[in-house]
Amino acid sequence: MLDKSLSTPSDVVIYNLEDNVPPSPYDRDTARQRLSTFLSVRRHRTPQSKLPHHDRIAVHLNDINTPFFKHDISEVLKSPFVRTLVLPKVHSVRDLHHVSRAIRTSRAGSSALFPIRIAASIESARSTWNLGEIASWTSEYGPDTGGKLGALLLAAEDYCADTSVSQIMIAAKAFRLDAIDMVYECEDGRRLGFNGKQAIHPTQVDIIHFTFVPTEEEILRAAKILHHMEVAHSSQKGAFGLEVEGGGKEMIDAPMLKQAENTIRVAKAAGLEIPLIS
Asked: Is the pTM here over 0.85, yes or no?
């Protein structure tokens, strides 16, 4: 399964040391060691066994209240390929401070420091109650030494799914974090404002990519907005009317311009064609 991850087209590959491993100490220790060997520099010198770019690699650790966490973080951070840690059961900023201290300790003496991105998994009523504090957290040691919060990840518990989906998305947007939805219902997740989704099998990646990139119609509309707004600004105007199907015009102003810019940014990142408007 580890070797199969080398060919997945997903944006990020998450190597899970928690849910996918039996709970016994032997199994957790074995899984950690296998992953450490897999992520070692020596193993990946040939093109055939080359790891994905470090921006695409994340490791899902055991939570901080288990006896496995300390060993997980110290072992996986030995690899220069690991730049993102997924932390389950983050209930408060106290948990993030604990993780930050562990990152600092694990990297003590390292001469090549770079920010470790933290994806905090929101899984409880307590975590949703503390959502604003969690989303605005920063490490007291700085991002290069103690890590940096980069995403809020929605776990699949019924309570979170039923009562706090929009809160998680809003908090993530407010603090410029990625909002990562749970495994199911791509279209609902995108409508709610999430900009990514977890997958548990490579066969799910294509449908996720298809759902979360803009449609041709959305790209065309965004391109028209950007073009006509540029023309409007050159004429000292702050808004304009965009012709719509069936006649009439839709008033376009600054907030809609921002949405259009985001649409084009995502489309470009996905390698989609942007039509030229004249």
From this structure: no
